[in-house]
Amino acid sequence: MSAVLRKAEDVASAHVRVHRCPSCAGGLDARPGALVCIACGAAYSLQDGIARFGDGGTAAPGFDASYFELLSKVEDEQFWFVSRRELILESLRRHVPDLTERPLYDIGCGPGGLLSFLARNGVPIAGACDSFHEALAFARKRIDAPFAQVPGDAPPPLIPGQRMLGMFDVLEHLDDDEATLRWAAAVLEPGGILVVTVPAHPFLFDEADVLAFHRRRYRRRDLGDRMKRAGFELRLLTHFMSPLVPMLMAARPIGRVLRGKGKTAADQRKAEMGVTPVLNSFMRGVLALERRALRAARMPFGTSLLAVAARSGAAPA
Q1: In Å, how far from its chain's centre is CA 141?
Q2: CA quadruple 257, 261, 266, 269: dihedral positive or negative?
Q3: Disulfide-capable partner of 11 in 49, 67, 80, 142 (CB 3.0 to 4.6 Å)?
Q4: Does one domain contain both 33 and 55?
Q5: pLDDT score recorded for residue 211
Q6: C-alpha to C-alpha distance for 197 and 127, rounded to whole angstroms
């Protein structure tokens, strides 16, 4: 058996271990080029490690699919992405003592930059999903894992008993975020871990959030209350990216002025995603200091929130 064929069979087997039929919740069987439900016979395309549980579409109307190409190029360099992933890894190591025994399923993985970083640093990976095939195609090049395309706001068809789920800047895109949190509690094992990041401070919501298809930004207390109502016990809930608050408060009004002179919100978003070497190095240094401060205290403000929680019933951390 060739190495390529053996790798494809390994990924197909991984799909069977983590996913179930979205139509009837039955178990799946791996067949050449497809996953087939043992119970109802429904078949789902499986190509290049990506199972299509959605409608097989691509990016939604109005969504610029080229964003994923830009994102895949900058997320290993740009200070926001680099600092966020470092904080997530450090927080997992501090608040999940059995981290190496908890495979992570990443919901809304995008082009896979964070997922591949966590895998390189010892976090076991169970799989990942996204609504956009364009994003999954980039992610598949970075890491061998069972990837799934799911439709719209629908959660992935996961077998109950998952050990750890990640939703990194996902909840803000969903109409019913509380229903998604309740679903997460239902598919996690007792004591299973949920890791969440979201944009913070509703007063910062503007055209850039609309362009990113955000439904909302979160207050710290509101996010915590939502997670508790869904059945989670918080181990960590903090703001981060605090130096960006005054910068964003200044930059967004300037952006509105520039849009009056022909600049669009999309132009502003791409500018915010850019990598300017001197500024990038400076901000990475500043945010490294913030991470050190977060080891001793919670940040009272910041443009993002990070939560690490366990499904109720877990032993205290």
Answers
A1: 17
A2: negative
A3: 49
A4: no
A5: 84
A6: 18
